[in-house]
Design a protein that fits this description.
Rossmann fold; 2 domains; 7-stranded parallel sheet; about 45% helix; globular; binds adenine
């Protein structure tokens, strides 16, 4: 730990904090009400500046906050070190840690005996359920940040394996409509552009998956001047992509003409041997999904006649003269090759997180996946509008009656 690193981390945290007014409002409420006094909130999140602002907010509410990373490449060491100097906060995240170190850090967080947890991807909850079951009776509840994590938790619930209450923060409207769409849409391109320093305009860009992240990434690719192709397995989403103006085709066709590929599906094996076989020289592959499973790197490595580091965070796989470039080892490109989502977007996501932690601390929830209470979602939207200086109309009593009734027709 060095003074320079801590100073750099503090500077990033201050910049983020200054662009997160909704979370600042929650922090003021927390300072006054101390709703988390006596609680320990164990976190596994991407340790970067916006996350640090959430951590500070929880600590300001009275909590002890041990935190580790939720991806080996997304931790920013300067931010981690700055966080670790704060009262009531302990940070175990280290950039580019091994798998063993990653899980050791999760254990270190659990050793603090948290009664509330926050996950991004579900690794901490998974460890709790598989190796640290002794701690389960003390857990009041948990929050999950991302689509992939919520999906995993719903599978656990379906199989009767989920033993604690979890709030699906990802599913709040003020989370996924903004973070997944505008956040991923901007930050993925930020990661790709700053890593490659190449032009997007005029290129064939293939977006795999047309969920909220895919929609945002495709929309921003259009703004950058790309010819956008979408691949999907869901017929409704495929239709939507088509009517949003994109070409839609199977990946095996897209693979032969794509120049930049961005996977956003959350599923495994989106780009595999059959696709690498037909890709053109110079193709760029990036993943924007939570886990590094969408690009099958084992198959790519097996096919490569040689590999080399082409630029920082770019590995070039040469297949008999055809060069295929993988960004950030196929890990989520916006965080492993960038700074994550813009602060204004994480402001809403993390205000939801903070208020859901308060909700868990002040309510008794039953095991299972719970939605974000609607009043929290509405409060985040209202505060965000206020912070942006935007006022909106109020419904009039007779309008409410009209909407609420069913007798009035033609
Ligand atoms: N910064 C912190 N958490 C993040 C996330 N889940 N996605 C993008 N940026 C982030």
């Amino acid at each position: 730990m060095t003074e320079d690193m801590i100073e750099s981390g503090n500077m990033k945290i201050e910049w983020a904090r200054n662009h997160m007014p909704v979370l600042a409002h929650v922090r003021e409420e927390f300072i006054t009400g101390q709703p988390l006094a006596g609680h320990t909130v164990g976190m596994a999140l991407h340790v970067e500046a916006k996350t640090a602002v959430l951590v500070e907010t929880l600590a300001a509410g009275g909590a002890q906050v041990p935190i580790c990373g939720c991806n080996p490449l997304s931790t920013q060491d300067d931010v981690a070190q700055a966080l670790d100097t704060r009262n009531n906060i302990r940070c175990y995240a280290i950039h580019a840690c091994s798998n063993d170190e990653y899980y050791t850090a999760i254990d270190a967080v659990l050793d603090h005996k948290p009664d509330i947890t926050i996950d991004d991807g579900g690794d901490l909850i998974f460890k709790l359920h598989t190796q640290r079951q002794d701690m389960m009776p003390d857990i009041l509840g948990a929050c999950e940040e991302t689509t992939t994590g919520v999906h995993r938790l719903k599978s656990m619930e379906r199989d009767g394996a989920l033993k604690i209450p979890v709030i699906a923060v990802n599913d709040a409207l003020t989370k996924f409509l903004f973070d997944n769409r505008y956040g991923t849409g901007q930050s993925s391109w930020d990661g790709i552009i700053r890593t490659t320093n190449l032009l997007v305009a005029g290129k064939n860009v293939v977006i795999a998956g047309y969920g909220w992240c895919g929609r945002g990434t495709a929309m921003r690719a259009v703004g950058l001047g790309a010819n956008v192709i979408v691949t999907e397995i869901d017929p409704i989403r495929a239709l939507e992509a088509r009517m949003d103006g994109y070409r839609v085709m199977p990946m095996i066709e897209a693979a032969a003409i794509g120049e930049i590929f961005v996977t956003t599906t959350g599923n495994v094996d989106i780009l595999t041997r059959e696709h690498f076989e037909v890709m053109t020289d110079g193709a760029i592959l990036a993943n924007a999904g939570h886990f590094n499973v969408e690009i099958n790197l084992d198959e790519l490595k097996a096919m490569a006649t040689s590999t080399k580091k082409a630029r920082n965070n770019i590995m070039e796989y040469n297949i008999n003269g055809r060069r295929i470039n993988v960004l950030a080892d196929g890990r989520l490109v916006n965080l492993a090759a960038g700074d994550g989502h813009p602060a204004e977007v994480m402001d809403m996501s993390f205000a939801n997180q903070a208020m859901c932690v308060e909700h868990i601390a002040t309510h008794k929830l039953t095991p299972g996946v719970h939605p974000v209470p609607q009043h929290i979602d509405m409060k985040v939207a209202g505060l965000k509008l206020e912070a942006m200086g935007i006022s909106i109309d109020k419904i009039k009593p007779h309008q409410f009656e009209y909407m609420d009734g069913w007798e009035t027709g033609t």
